[in-house]
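Sharing in case it's useful to others searching the archive later.

Someone asked me privately for the predicted structure of T9SS type A sorting domain-containing protein, so I'm posting the question and my answer publicly. Question first, with the sequence:
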Amino acid sequence: MRDKYFIFISIICLIITTPAFAQNTWEVTVSNYSFSPSELNIEQGDIVTWKNISGMHNVNGSISTFTNNPVSFGNEVSSAPWEYSFTFNVSGEYQYQCDPHLSQMQGTISVNQATSIHSNINLNEVKLYPSPFYNSLNLSLPDNHNYITLKLFSLTGMEVYTTTVKDKKAVHLDLAYLAKGIYLYQLTSTNDAIKMGKIQKH
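And my answer, the predicted structure tokens:
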């Protein structure tokens, strides 16, 4: 019984200390050769849902089309009705289009980086090395951190790795299973201070 009590308390503490991002859902109507609204200003972690109610359309926000997009998103061309949702975990400026009607149907999304106030952790002191890395990655942490959460995302925005480190100054991460390529990392500290960047695996 006592063990169950401690497990319960540990779970509650984990929930309280786990950083939470915005989780609002925004709806874009696809019809009449337009995205409505065609411009959105959202927060990191928000979800955008496109709803096609008329015609044959798609959402193309791929990096191959818009090279400055932080990550790719989009779906295939299909006739109505359909819905497509994407969670914007990576901040930045995004552009997208409907491929069959690219001269008429274009949109932009500004994703604001989640920030925090009253954080006493300087995330510039957190080091990820080596870069590029091969099978393992080292995480060097400041002395005064309570916890640091590391998340890795593919360039399509898919979360491929997450770990939370408490009361340690250095961590060795085994990432041999990850495919070669460029990954986006997101470091979150106490009070949800955030640092983001890119790292490459050879």
